[in-house]
Amino acid sequence: MSVVLLIGATSAIGASLVRALATQGNELYLVGRNAERLAGVVEDAKLRGSKVIASMPVDLADLKNCEELKQWISAISEVEHAIILPGVLSDELGTLAQWSQDVMVNFTVPSFLARTISEKMSSQSEGGHLVLIGSVAGDRGRQSNGFYGSQKGALEIYAEALRHRTALKNCKVKVSFVKPGFVVSPMTAELKKNVLFSEPDQIAKKIVSLFSRGRSGVVYAPGWWRLIMLLIKLTPNFIFHRTRL
Amino acid sequence: MTEVWWQDELQKPAIEGARFLPVGLGRSYGDSALLAEEDGVMKSISRAGRLVGFDDETKVLEVEAGCSLGEILKWCVPRGYFLPVVPGTQKVTVGGAIANDIHGKNHHESGTFGRWVVSFDLFRTEGGWVSCSKSENRDLFEATIGGLGLTGVLGRVRLRMHALQGEGLVEQETVRFDSLREGTEILSGLDRRYPMTVAWIDMASKKMGRGVAMGGRFVEGECPRSKRKGISVPFDAPSCLLNRSAIRAFNTVYSATRHPGVERLPFEKYFFPLDGVENWNRLYGARGFLQYQCVVPLHAISALSELQRKIADSGQGAFLSVLKKFGPLSSPGLLSFPMSGWTLAMDFAMEGAATLSLMKKLDGVVREVGGRLYPAKDARMSGEFFREGYPQWEELEKLRDVSITSRFWERVRT
Ligand SMILES: Cc1cc2nc3c(=O)[nH]c(=O)nc-3n(C[C@H](O)[C@H](O)[C@H](O)COP(=O)(O)OP(=O)(O)OC[C@H]3O[C@@H](n4cnc5c(N)ncnc54)[C@H](O)[C@@H]3O)c2cc1C
Ligand SMILES: NC(=O)c1ccc[n+]([C@@H]2O[C@H](COP(=O)([O-])OP(=O)(O)OC[C@H]3O[C@@H](n4cnc5c(N)ncnc54)[C@H](OP(=O)(O)O)[C@@H]3O)[C@@H](O)[C@H]2O)c1
C-alpha cells in the first residue's frame, strides 16, 4: 500500500489507473478538471477499497489554479508515487491562442508540476517515483501530428533533465517516462480503430508494474512500440517524406 | 459506432436530431443491438461503468449501466456477495442485462435479472433524465426491463445483490439421460434440490436426445483461482472445421467425457466456460452461426420432441444445445422473454438457405404451442411471429424514445 498522487484522474488512462490502484488498496490523492466526473471517480475508488484522502478539480490552462494545485501538493505529507497524465491532441493547424494553451497543458504545467513533485520527493527520506506520460508521437516529427508530437518530445527531454538533477542530488527519486502508442480513449474518438490500438487498462497495468519494479527511464506501452518506433526513426528521409504518416 | 465515456455526455443537444441505439458489449447474437449506418449511430455505453455505492443493509449496489457483470463480480465476490442472475458469459453490461432481462441457471429460484433491479435513471431524448422504479414512472420501469434498449439510455442502476455462501466455490452434480423426455424429468427433479440447474443435450449425433443434466449450488470452501490465461482463437476457422460430422463428433466426445457424480469447481468455470476461450465464435468460420432459443409452455413438452425430430430430419446438427426449465416467477419486464416452461437454446452453423428453412420449421412448432423466441439471439424471425409472441409490443412502441431504434425493431414491428 502506497500514497499515490494522480493528476489527470478523469482521463481514460487515469480512470483505469484509479481502478487498478484502488483495488490494491492504495491511498489516493486525485486531481482532475471536471469536478462532477472527479467525484464519480472518487466514489468508484472508495468502493473498491482505497482511501481517497483528497481530490481537487484543476484547470491546467489556468495559472492561478495551477498555483493552488502547487500549494495543495506541498501540503501532502508524503507522496510515494505520482503520475501526471493530462494532455490534449493539438490541432495541427490551430491558432496561436490554441497552441499557446496546448503547450500549457501538454508541456509547461506538467513540467512545472514534475519539478514540484520531484523536489518534494527529494526531501522525503524514501524518495519517490514519478511517472510522466509522453507519446510515441514524440519520437519523430511527422506532418500529420507535428505540434502535439513536439510537445510530448519536449516533455521527454525535461523528464531526462529531472533524472539528471535527481541523480546529482543522490536522492532516491525515480522518474519514468511512459510512451503509449494508440490508445482507445476520448482523445482518439475520431480515429478509426485498428490492431495497433491498446486499451487504457493495458497502459494502466504497465504503469502500475513500473511502481512495483521501481523502474526509472523511458518505457513504451505496450513494449512492442519500441520496435515500431525504432523502424520509423531509422527510415531515411527520402522514403519517409513520401509517406503521409 | 461512437463511445460514451462519461454519463454527462448524454445531454439533449448532443443526442437530439440524430437517431441512435445504445449498446453495451455487443454480446447479443442477433440484430437487436445493431443499427445500420444509414439509420443512425450505435452509441456504446460500456465505457461509462463506474461503481457508485453499496448499502450493506439493503444489499443494494449502485453502478453505471456500462459496468460489466465481470467487473461487478470481481468486486463483490471477495466481499461475500454475488449477482442475483448471471448469463453464460460475464462480458455483458448491466445495461444489456436489463434490456434483455436476462436469465441464468437459477431462473427457477430467482427469476430474471429484472426482478432484482430496484430502480434506475433513464435518459430520454424528450425530457432528459428520469428516475424509474416500481413507484416512480412505473410504465417506463417495466417497459425498459426487457425493452431492448428502445426506451432510452440506462444511466445509474440500483441492483439488489445476493449474499454469497462461501468464496465462490460451486458444487455440481451431473446426471446422464438417454432421451429428451427423461432429461426433462431429471431436470425437474434437480430443480427441487439445486438453486442452479441446466442440461446439455445432444442435438447432432445418432443418439440425439441424450444428454447430461447438472445441478449446482454454492458451497463453503476455498475457491482455487486459476491464474492461467485463457486460450484464444486467433482467426476464423476454415468453414470445413465445424462441418456436420465434426459437430456430431463434438457431441459424442462431450457426452463421453461428462461423468456422473459430484465435483467442485470455481464459479467462473461453472458459469462462464466459454469466457476461457477468447473469440470462440471464430471456430464457426466466416459465415458464423445462428442461435435459436425458444421457450414453450410447461404443458407443451411434446413440442420439444417435435423440434428434435425436425432437426434430425434436416440432417443439420446443433453444436451446443442447452435445455432449462423456467420457473413460474414473473418479471416486472413488459417484453421479458422467459415464461413458465421449457427453453431450448441451440447453435447452428450457418449453412445458408438450408439452415434458415430448418428454423422456419422450428418456428412453426413453437408457434403452435404458444411459445416464443428470445430477441437477444434472433436475427431472422418474422414480424408476425414476434408480435404474436409479445403482444405487449405495442405498449413498448408507445414508450419508445423518439430517437432510438434498432435493426431488430425495424424488422419486427411491421
Ligand atoms: C456466450 C454467451 C452466453 C450467453 N448466455 C446467456 C444466458 O444464459 N441467458 C441470457 O439471458 N442471455 C445470454 N446471453 C445473451 C446476453 O446475455 C445478452 O445478449 C446481453 O443483453 C448482452 O449484453 P451486452 O452488454 O453485450 O449488450 P448488447 O448486446 O450490446 O446490447 C443488448 C441490448 O441492450 C441494450 N442496451 C445496452 N446497454 C444499454 C443501456 N445503457 N441503455 C439502454 N439499453 C442498453 C441494447 O440496445 C440491446 O438492445 C449470452 C451471450 C453469450 C455471448
Ligand atoms: N489516447 C492515445 O492514443 C494516447 C497516446 C499516447 C499518449 N496519450 C497521452 O495519455 C494521456 C491521457 O490521455 P487519454 O488517452 O486518457 O485521453 P483523455 O481521456 O482525453 O485524457 C486527456 C486528459 O487531459 C485532461 N485535460 C485536457 N486539458 C486540460 C486542462 N486544461 N486542464 C486539466 N486537464 C486537462 C482532460 O481532462 P478532462 O477529463 O476534464 O477532459 C483529460 O483528463 C495524455 O497525456 C495523452 O497525451 C494518449
UniProtKB/TrEMBL annotation, chain A:
Key words, A-Z: Oxidoreductase
InterPro entries: NAD(P)-bd_dom_sf, SDR_fam
Any one annotated GO CC term: membrane
Top-level division of the source organism's lineage: Bacteria
Coiled coil: none
Molecular function GO terms recorded: oxidoreductase activity
PANTHER family: DEHYDROGENASE/REDUCTASE SDR FAMILY MEMBER 7B, DEHYDROGENASE_REDUCTASE SDR FAMILY MEMBER 7B
Family in the record: Belongs to the short-chain dehydrogenases/reductases (SDR) family.
Name listed for the protein in its UniProt record: Short-chain dehydrogenase
Taxonomic source organism: Roseibacillus persicicus
